[in-house]
Specification:
36% of the residues lie in helices and 23% in strands. It is of the alpha/beta class and 619 residues long. It has three domains: 244 residues, Aminohydrolase, N-terminal nucleophile (Ntn) domain (Glutamine Phosphoribosylpyrophosphate, subunit 1, domain 1); 187 residues, Glucose-6-phosphate isomerase like protein, domain 1 (Rossmann fold, 3-Layer(aba) Sandwich), CATH 3.40.50; 168 residues, Glucose-6-phosphate isomerase like protein, domain 1 (Rossmann fold, 3-Layer(aba) Sandwich), CATH 3.40.50. Strand 17, helix 10 and strand 18 form a beta-alpha-beta unit. The two termini are 32 Å apart. The protein binds 2-deoxy-2-amino glucitol-6-phosphate. 2-deoxy-2-amino glucitol-6-phosphate (AGP) binds next to helix 10.
């Protein structure tokens, strides 16, 4: 999966081990669970060392068991997708003759059929990764031609999916070759030495002169120079640029905070969670193959989660019920197991957890299993405890989420729930293939629509969030699928700006909360589409009038072209048109931006808010 692995390559006069390790250290912000390097030493031998765990584990291993150094090397930090974190699954991976090493960022979607082809030719494999298939293919092609660039061209033409690949062969010291498709790779230009990296942080301490490689291109670096060709072998011009970040900024990929970086990744978090799970407009979730009977037999779904993950579950409930007709309840994990719930083998308990380590959620999953329910984990962290405790797993592929405030994982969790709902809806015969395909198309359009919200509204939101810096409290209103988004917007604001905020169902306004409204009180309102839910739209407009009549400052999130909000809104944040169930994936983005903007305006650390931990591993 196009996770956020770290990649470093070096050729030049200097020993490469230290350069590779320090490059990987600057990429640690990307999050990872194993690390490794390969080096061609002075005797022309390819040496390899890789360890599960953090970079320090690899450093310690190299300190106690030194590996011969050399001036040609590649290094990698892996965020596990295919195959959990382990020494065997860590990169680099070797061709079967051990003379060629490969590192990879991304997913090779057709690796299973390629692996079958190679197994049929007698090749053997040491790991369960898709990467090793590329290593064996490259080794086979190099053995035939002796030309590593030509080998890359042949292999790259056969790979489907997204990848950045680097390789080197011990018979070609001083040469590292890379290829990219839908995954980052940049070149660092030194004096008599050259670098490759998944981003400039890999080499910014050595050079700020860089080249960006385009889609479907192959790069060969030697100490003397760099050549870039397309997959057909034609030379291409690449754009030089100077790296303007300093090394510390590069730790966050140039972003002011991890949260800013992760909000910017919301489109790809959705895209990557979909990737590899739609074929011919139909949802295919490989992790759930062979479980049709389980899904056909359930009579109830209970979603258990905490915080933001619970709000994702509240959004997912609407789609699950509409597309599967199975009753769905969403429960806070820490409440679930103390209420003596009525569950059994016809109950599917779906846990949602970015970290996969939240103790409240883990204990709820264990309780569910002890009481006979089937369990399915939606998780963003490969090999985490909650997935390991579950009968089934659907991983989100948001990539590592470092900021305490969950943003890209939230939209990825909703995406995973929608894929699950479509999958189960088809199994239970509730959705026709055409109906499912229509929802799939809507979902596939979401990444581009989120990108539009980021491009068109970010500056506007950051601007007015600054004039709200002294706000004492903010209210968030929403109806239907907008209600969980109101809750999420309030939580995001609370946890990083320390401002009291409350989200509630707009219909509740007259049942109490309207007493809170006084002149100047900021109120966010998530407005449903008038095209599809005229009655809900009309009711929310009247809610806006009620709070405006009492002096509230109203900020609305409404779809493009909805003019009914204009007379009553102090600020209008626009989202692209989308089917009602998909609007939450768009409406939440302005609220994430707003929380970040207000916290920044208050001079707070948006990544590490006070009192909070990224994963609450205690009850
Ligand atoms: C979200 O911004 C918060 N950091 C928190 O509510 C979080 O969603 C909750 O603790 C659940 O974490 P999990 O997804 O790792 O289980």
């Amino acid at each position: 999966m196009v996770a956020m692995c770290g990649i470093v390559g070096y050729v030049g006069p200097r020993p490469s081990q230290a350069i590779l390790i320090s490059g990987l250290a600057r990429l640690e912000y990307r999050g990872y669970d194993s690390a490794g390097i390969a080096v061609i030493d002075a005797d022309g031998h390819l040496g390899l060392r890789k360890r599960a765990g953090k970079l320090q584990v690899l450093r310690d291993d190299l300190a106690t068991h030194p590996m011969a150094d050399g001036t040609t090397g590649i290094g990698h930090t892996r965020w596990a997708t295919h195959g959990g974190p382990s020494d065997a699954n860590a990169h680099p991976h070797l061709a079967d003759d051990g003379k060629l090493a490969v590192i990879h960022n991304g997913i090779i979607e057709n690796f299973a059929e390629l692996k079958d082809e190679l197994l049929g030719q007698g090749f053997t494999f040491r790991s369960e990764t898709d990467t090793e298939v590329a290593a064996v293919l490259l080794g086979r092609e190099f053995a035939a031609s002796g030309d590593l660039v030509a080998a890359f061209r042949t292999v790259a033409a056969r790979l489907e999916g997204a990848f950045t690949l680097l390789a080197m062969h011990q018979e070609r010291p001083g040469l590292v070759v890379g290829a990219r498709r839908n995954s980052p790779l940049v070149i660092g230009l030194g004096e008599g030495e050259n670098f490759l990296g998944s981003d400039v942080a890999a080499f910014v301490e050595h050079t700020r002169n860089a080249l960006a490689i385009g889609q479907d291109q192959i790069v060969a670096i030697t100490p003397a120079g760099v050549s870039v060709t397309d997959f057909a072998g034609n030379a291409v011009d690449v754009e030089p640029f100077e790296v303007v970040w300093d090394a510390s900024a590069a730790e966050k990929g140039g972003w002011s905070s991890f949260m800013a970086k992760e909000v910017s990744e919301e489109p790809e978090a959705v895209a990557n969670t979909i990737r590899g799970r739609v074929h011919d407009d139909a949802v295919v979730i490989p992790e759930l193959s062979g479980m049709d009977e389980l899904f056909a037999g359930i009579h109830r779904i209970i979603i258990v989660a905490c915080g933001t993950a619970a709000y994702a579950g509240m959004v997912g409930k609407y789609a699950l019920e509409q597309w599967t007709r199975v009753p769905v309840d969403v429960e806070l994990a820490h409440e679930f197991r103390y209420r003596d719930p009525v569950i059994g083998e016809d109950t599917l308990v779906v846990s949602i957890s970015q970290s996969g380590e939240t103790m409240d959620t883990l204990m709820a999953v264990k309780y569910a299993r002890e009481h006979g329910a089937k369990t399915l984990s939606i998780c963003n962290t490969q090999g985490a405890t909650i997935p390991r405790e579950s009968d089934a797993i659907v991983y989100t592929h948001a990539g590592p989420e470092v900021a305490v405030a969950s943003t890209k994982a939230f939209v990825a969790q909703i995406t995973a729930l929608y894929l699950l709902a479509l999958h189960v809806g088809r199994i239970r015969g509730v959705l026709s293939a055409a109906e499912s395909a229509a929802h799939v198309h809507e979902l596939q359009g979401i990444p581009g629509k989120i990108s539009r919200v980021l491009a068109e509204e970010q500056a506007h939101i950051e601007q007015f969030s600054h004039w709200m810096a002294d706000t004492q409290s903010v209210l968030f209103l929403g109806r239907h699928v907008g209600y969980p988004i109101a809750l999420e917007g309030a939580l995001k604001l609370k946890e990083i700006s320390y401002i009291h905020a409350e989200g509630f169902a707009a219909g509740e306004l007259k049942h109490g909360p309207i007493a809170l409204i006084e002149p100047g009180q900021p109120v966010f309102v998530i407005v449903p589409s008038p095209r599809e839910s005229a009655e809900l739209h009309r009711k929310v407009i009247s809610n806006i009038q009620e709070v405006r009549a009492r002096g509230a400052r109203v900020i609305v999130v409404a779809e493009e072209g909805d003019a009914a909000v204009l007379p009553f809104a102090d600020e209008v944040l626009r989202i692209p048109l989308a089917a009602p169930l998909f609007e939450p994936l768009l409406a939440v983005v302005p609220l994430h931006i707003f929380a970040m903007g207000l916290a920044t305006a208050k001079g707070l650390d948006v990544d590490q808010p006070r009192n909070l931990a990224k994963s609450v591993t205690v009850e």
